[in-house]
From TrEMBL:
Record-given protein name: Pur operon repressor
UniProt keyword list: DNA-binding, Transcription, Transcription regulation
Subunit structure of this chain's protein: Homodimer.
Boundaries of every Phosphoribosyltransferase domain copy: 112-243
Biological source species: Paenibacillus sabuli
Classification via InterPro entries: PRTase-like (IPR029057), PRTase_dom (IPR000836), Pur/Pyrimidine_PRTase (IPR050118), PuR_N (IPR015265), PurR_Bsub (IPR010078), WH-like_DNA-bd_sf (IPR036388), WH_DNA-bd_sf (IPR036390)
Domain Bacterial purine repressor N-terminal: 5-74
Lineage: Bacteria, Bacillati, Bacillota, Bacilli, Bacillales
Family: Belongs to the purine/pyrimidine phosphoribosyltransferase family. PurR subfamily.
GO molecular function, one term: DNA binding
Single GO biological process annotation from the record: negative regulation of DNA-templated transcription
A Pfam family that the UniProt record links to this protein: Pribosyltran
Matching PANTHER family: HYPOXANTHINE/GUANINE PHOSPHORIBOSYLTRANSFERASE, PUR OPERON REPRESSOR
Length: 275
């Protein structure tokens, strides 16, 4: 790269870090990239760090030593996150979103990149310190959430299928009981998709009783993997506590009431905002 003026270098360095979250970048790499002294690079990083923190974009961690450098961790202030989630709750309360069975239509929202980016950054904030190896979700609606979260954590995504695909080779399949309707269903994961003993973050779009997530956890047991966290976009509050299959999870929104006759719903911020 040609030598840049300091103002241009600051812009380019900022973009470089934003595009590589949770990646350690050495001062030497920056110095070589911008043909600048390490002392100048250090001053630039101090400015970027201050802006990131003041604007709530995240944290810039410095690691000392010969193998050290800087690492950008995207974060979202809980106050900002709450404002976004309240807007999501208002949108989910629209009567036309009520579907038979008390479900909410959310597909259009899951297809909005800017909204998914916000939600992904929230999950990345929650699970930033879990030492994760991979993000897991089940096809299909949870995929945008998983990829948005993975972008900010700089991790690969593994997708659990409802049935085995011949293009994915041999797979591990299990039967599980759906928590909402008690039906026996099947899910599978290609053997090549996940290494053994991986630390996994499960992301799902909607959780009623938690049967699907419990199924994924049982599937991970076959890979000797560890469930390091569970993130849920919207959880249902209309499930009795003794029917809930999960206790340890983070939800961003909670559907607390649905009147199928009037199509009136109540959606509140999830348990993340109660901590």
């Amino acid at each position: 790269m040609r030598k840049l003026k300091r103002s241009a270098r600051l812009v380019e360095m900022t973009q470089y870090l934003l595009a590589r979250p949770h990646t350690l970048v050495s001062l030497t790499a920056f110095a070589d990239r911008y043909q600048s002294a390490k002392s100048s690079i250090s001053e630039d990083l101090a400015i970027i760090k201050e802006v990131f923190e003041e604007e709530g974009l995240g944290e810039l961690h410095t690691l000392a030593g010969a193998a050290g450098g800087v690492k950008f961790l995207p974060k979202m202030d809980k106050t900002e996150a709450l404002g976004i989630i309240k807007g999501i709750c208002r949108e989910l309360e629209q009567p036309e979103r009520v579907l038979p069975g008390g479900y909410l239509y959310m597909t259009d929202m899951l297809g909005q990149p800017s909204l998914m980016n916000d939600v992904g950054r929230m999950f990345a904030t929650v699970f930033a310190d879990r030492q994760l190896d991979v993000i897991m979700t089940v096809e299909t609606k949870g995929i945008p959430l998983a990829y948005a979260t993975a972008t900010y954590l700089n991790l690969p995504v593994v997708i659990v299928r409802r049935d085995n695909k011949v293009t994915e080779g041999s797979a591990v399949s299990i039967n599980y009981v759906s928590g909402s309707n008690k039906r026996i269903q099947t899910m599978s994961l290609a053997r090549r998709a996940l290494r053994e003993r991986a630390r996994v973050l499960i992301i799902d779009d909607f959780m009623r009783a938690g049967g699907t997530i419990q199924g994924m956890m049982d599937l991970l047991y076959e890979f000797e993997a560890t469930v390091a966290g569970v993130g849920v976009f919207v959880e249902s509050g209309e499930v009795e506590m003794d029917e809930r299959l999960l206790e340890d999870y983070v939800s961003l929104a909670k559907l607390t009431a649905v009147d199928l006759k009037t199509k009136q719903t109540t959606v509140l911020p999830g348990n993340y905002f109660r901590s």
